[in-house]
Structure formats: structure tokens, C-alpha cells
Design goal:
Blueprint lengths: L14 H59 L1 H22 L6 H21 L8 H14 L5 H34 L5 H11 L1 H4 L9 H11 L1 H4 L2 H20 L2 H7 L1 H14 L1 H12 L23 H24 L7 H5 L20
Helix pairs in contact: 1-2, 1-5, 1-6, 1-12, 1-14, 2-3, 3-4, 3-5, 4-13, 5-10, 5-11, 5-12, 6-8, 10-14
Protein name: GPC5 protein
InterPro entries: Glypican, Glypican_CS
Pfam families: Glypican
Length: 368
């Protein structure tokens, strides 16, 4: 009653043994593919982690730099500015990780929150009544009167351009893991598991437990079983090319590092611009939002202080070097995996599975 290992000679197999063999080949094949995938997956996961660590390091450096700007140059508003600064960098981090947010939205939200502080602490430091309604009016007015000039738009442009490639690379790496995982759990068809039993275990039914499949026979069976996985070859090659393009985009001019490191400078320029145009802004704001209560006595607006470069270059250089070297190592490895799915049958037939150094092997029907 054998279904797979039918043979003219006497046999030591039963139908139940054939079923056990089918379960065994499915388990073995899954383990073999997992073992092949492990190195590739380990490399991608490792790079995702390293990339995120280096990026977070750059982000922390840029955030600390920006916080230092307020603490040294704009002390009257430093405490209240801490939350908008934190939100800005959180939004940037989420954008990189693929969240449904935009760089423009994050930057403009920051400047919306910043304007009431700049107006009430630097331009008109005598304001005592900063009610919720008045603060909201200032936030909305920011969008119309553009107190920060072209600096806010420039910051959007620079960050959008540099963060885009990082966001795409992060998403592409996650996609790579998904693809690899899907191949690990690809179900073997009934025909395939029968062919694998015939190749690996039918010789056992004749007592030939040491004989192994012929190389050509193994390749034919594996290619038939893994046809759907091998179809990923063209897309995988394209995926590697895309990774190469994205890493080159990121490395081209150190844009990511430069843009993040320059956030404090853009914010400083924007605040200086608003201070220089203080009188005109006050006139417009009074018309739109009304005149708030002022303290007695004529308080002059905060003097404009030129800000020196905030220190911390060493941290920045280390984070940048780490990011650059990781990118190079990773893309060199990934380029070597370009033929991964095209050669998966050859890899599975390599090693102990087939008979390489002997003229005697199993061809599916008999020993040849």
C-alpha cells in the first residue's frame, strides 16, 4: 500500500512510515531554509539596530544643542521652550521610523508653539496676561504674518531632503525582514513533499541508509519545490539596488548629519529675524489679537545676543563616523547576497545532502 516509495524489490517501509517521512522532509526543509536565511536576516536586523542607535545619537546631540541655545541665549523662555523642542525631535524620530507624519508638519508645529514664547518673552517682555485664547491667537497669527521669515521654510526643505532617504532606508530594511520571513514559512506542496521523500528516504526502504541523492537529481527536485521562492530573484535584485541607491543618497553629502546638527542654527536665525522685526510684528498682532495687559513701566524688549557655536562636535563626529562605516559594511554585504534567491536550490543541495565525491548515488529510482 505504499504511495511514494513503490519498488519491485521487497521493502521494509509501511504507509505510516511514508507519512512520517513526509512530516520529516517538511520540518527539515523549513530548518534548512531558516539556516540559510539566518545570516542574511541577522545582518539586516543588526543594521537596523545599528542605524537606529547612530541616528538616535545624532538626534540626542542635535536636541541637546538646541536646548543649550535656549539656555544660553534665550534664558527668559528656556523653560517653556523645552517641551516644543522635545516634541520636534520626537516627531523627527517617528518620521524616520515610518510614522504617518511629515517633516513640514513637525517643523511648523514647533514654530507655532515657539512664536507665543518669542513674542511674550523677547519682543514684548512686559506682557502679563498670556491667556489660552491670546496664546492660541498668536499661534494662528504665526501662519499669516510669518514672523520667522524664510528660516522656517528653509529648515523644512533641508530636513525633508535629508530625512527622506533615512526614512526610506528604514522602511526598506523592515520590508527585507518581511520578505525573508515569508520564505521561511512558505508551505511545501503535496507533490514537493512526495518528491523530497522519494529523493531522501525511499533508499532507506531498500535498506540503503548511507546512499545519498545525485547532485543533478537534487537540483531538479529543489528547483521544482522552490520555484515560487526563486521567483523573488528579480525583485530581490531590485531591492538590493534600491538599498544601494538609498545608502549612496545618505552618504553623498552627509546631509542627514549636517541637517540635524544645523537645527539649532536655523532656530536661532529665525528668532533673531523675529526680534529684528519686533515693532512691525507687534503692530500686526495688536490688530489681530488685541492688546494684552502690560506690566507698569516701560520694559525694553530683550536685547539681541549673537550666539556662538554650541560645543559638542566630538559627539557629532563619532555618531557620523559610526553611521557612515555601518552603511558601507552593510551595503557591501547586501551586494554579495544579490543572487540569494536565484541560488537557493544550489545552496540546499550543497554539503551533506548529496553525494559529491563518489560515482554511486540515488537517482530517484535506483542506485546509479
Amino acid at each position: 500500500d505504499l504511495q511514494i516509495c513503490q519498488h519491485r524489490a521487497p521493502t521494509c517501509c509501511t504507509k505510516k512510515m511514508e507519512e512520517s517521512y513526509q512530516a520529516a522532509v517538511r520540518r527539515e526543509r523549513a530548518q534548512s531554509i531558516q539556516a540559510l536565511n539566518f545570516e542574511l536576516k541577522y545582518m539586516i536586523v543588526g543594521h537596523i539596530t545599528a542605524f537606529q542607535e547612530a541616528f538616535e545619537s545624532l538626534l540626542r546631540f542635535a536636541e541637546n544643542r538646541t536646548s543649550s541655545l535656549f539656555e544660553t541665549a534665550y534664558r527668559p523662555m528656556a523653560k517653556e521652550a523645552a517641551e516644543p523642542v522635545k516634541e520636534l525631535f520626537t516627531d523627527i524620530s517617528l518620521y524616520i521610523l515610518g510614522a504617518e507624519t511629515t517633516v513640514e508638519g513637525a517643523v511648523l508645529r514647533f514654530f507655532d508653539s515657539l512664536f507665543p514664547l518669542v513674542y511674550s518673552r523677547l519682543i514684548n517682555p512686559g506682557i502679563t496676561d498670556l491667556s489660552e485664547d491670546y496664546t492660541e491667537c498668536l499661534r494662528l497669527t504665526r501662519q499669516d504674518i510669518n514672523p520667522f521669515g524664510h528660516y522656517s521654510k528653509n529648515m523644512v526643505t533641508e530636513l525633508s531632503k535629508s530625512l527622506w532617504a533615512s526614512r526610506m532606508l528604514s522602511q526598506a530594511l523592515s520590508l527585507g525582514i518581511e520578505v525573508i520571513n515569508s520564505t521561511e514559512h512558505a508551505a511545501l506542496s503535496k507533490e514537493c513533499s512526495r518528491a523530497l521523500v522519494r529523493m531522501q528516504y525511499c533508499p532507506h526502504c531498500q535498506g540503503l541508509t548511507l546512499i545519498r541523492p545525485c547532485v543533478g537529481y537534487c537540483l531538479n527536485v529543489m528547483r521544482g519545490c522552490l520555484a515560487s521562492v526563486a521567483e523573488l530573484d528579480a525583485q530581490w535584485r531590485e531591492f538590493i539596488s534600491t538599498l544601494e541607491y538609498l545608502t549612496n543618497e545618505m552618504a553623498a553629502s552627509q546631509e542627514l548629519e549636517t541637517a540635524l546638527a544645523g537645527i539649532w542654527s536655523s532656530i536661532n536665525e529665525a528668532i533673531l529675524h523675529a526680534q529684528l522685526n519686533g515693532p512691525q510684528l507687534s503692530t500686526t498682532v495688536d490688530k489681530v489679537c488685541g492688546q494684552p495687559k502690560q506690566q507698569e513701566g516701560n520694559l525694553s524688549s530683550a536685547s539681541i545676543v549673537p550666539v556662538k557655536e554650541v560645543t559638542g562636535a566630538q559627539t557629532f563626529v563619532m555618531a557620523h563616523t559610526s553611521l557612515s562605516s555601518r552603511r558601507r559594511e552593510f551595503i557591501n554585504y547586501m551586494k554579495r547576497s544579490r543572487t540569494f534567491y536565484a541560488s537557493i536550490a544550489e545552496r540546499l543541495c550543497d554539503g551533506d545532502l548529496v553525494m559529491r565525491d563518489s560515482s554511486t548515488c540515488w537517482n530517484g529510482e535506483d542506485v546509479v
